């Protein structure tokens, strides 16, 4: 006698992956909304994509424009326009690379850092509140699992844990 399709492990995995994709879609919708609001807080009229570029510069800079384009997986022309806008707003500066004066590095200014902080503080506070009852180890595991998923690798054994059985 064969198992019903829904009870086969491959079907259960497929259903779990579909559920995960749905959860990510919901999370991405929320983050798009947050980025749109944060961009407007950083500078009225700023587009969310430009704000994302500013965040990458804040977290990973100083960096070249071509490296920036790779990091955000965007067209170099788009990145060039965003960098020009951010520079015009005084949020970033382009400076000569100390090791190669022909190369220009992009880095966030103090004003840019202040605008990022002002824009993101409410959402970071909201996230802290949402996770206030979570055990620290769960937050650390989730972070590690998301990094593994983003890198397309299996999670480290220490990050895998048994979850309670769900009622079928």
Q: Write down the Rg.
A: 21 Å
> Roughly what percent helix?
55-70%
Oligomer: single chain
Major sheet? 2 strands, antiparallel
Strand fraction band?
A: 5-15%
Number of helices: 6
Summarize the structure.
By secondary structure, the chain is mainly α. Helices cover 62% and strands 9% of the residues.
Topology record:
Elements: H1 9-42, H2 48-60, H3 65-71, H4 76-88, E1 92-97, E2 100-108, H5 110-130, H6 136-151
Antiparallel strand pairs: 1-2
Helix pairs in contact: 1-2, 1-5, 2-4, 3-4
3D structure, described in words:
It is a single chain. The protein has 168 residues and is mostly helical. It has six helices and two strands; from the N terminus they run H-H-H-H-E-E-H-H. The chain has helices spanning 9-42, 48-60, 65-71, 76-88, 110-130, 136-151; strands at 92-97, 100-108. A hairpin with a 2-residue loop joins strand 1 and strand 2 (100-108). Helix 1 (9-42) packs across helix 2 (48-60) and helix 3 packs across helix 4. The longest helix is centred in the first third of the chain and has 34 residues, at 9-42. The radius of gyration is 21 Å and the shape is globular. The two termini are 21 Å apart. The model is unreliable at 164-168 (pLDDT under 50).
Keyphrases for this structure?
168 residues, 6 helices, disordered C terminus
């Amino acid at each position: 006698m064969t198992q019903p399709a829904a009870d086969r492990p491959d079907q259960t995995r497929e259903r779990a992956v579909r559920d995960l994709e749905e959860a990510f879609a919901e999370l991405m919708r929320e983050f798009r909304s947050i980025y749109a609001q944060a961009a407007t807080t950083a500078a009225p009229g700023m587009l969310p994509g430009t704000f994302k570029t500013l965040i990458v510069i804040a977290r990973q800079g100083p960096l070249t424009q071509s490296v920036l384009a790779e990091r955000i997986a965007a067209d170099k022309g788009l990145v060039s326009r965003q960098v020009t806008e951010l520079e015009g707003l005084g949020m970033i500066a382009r400076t000569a690379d100390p090791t190669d004066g022909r190369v220009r590095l992009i880095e966030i200014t103090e004003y840019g850092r202040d605008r990022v902080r002002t824009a993101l503080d409410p959402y970071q506070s909201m996230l802290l509140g949402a996770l206030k009852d979570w055990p620290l180890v769960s937050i650390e595991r989730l972070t590690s699992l998301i990094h593994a998923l983003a890198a397309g690798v299996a999670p480290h054994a220490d990050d895998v844990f048994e979850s309670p059985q769900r009622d079928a």
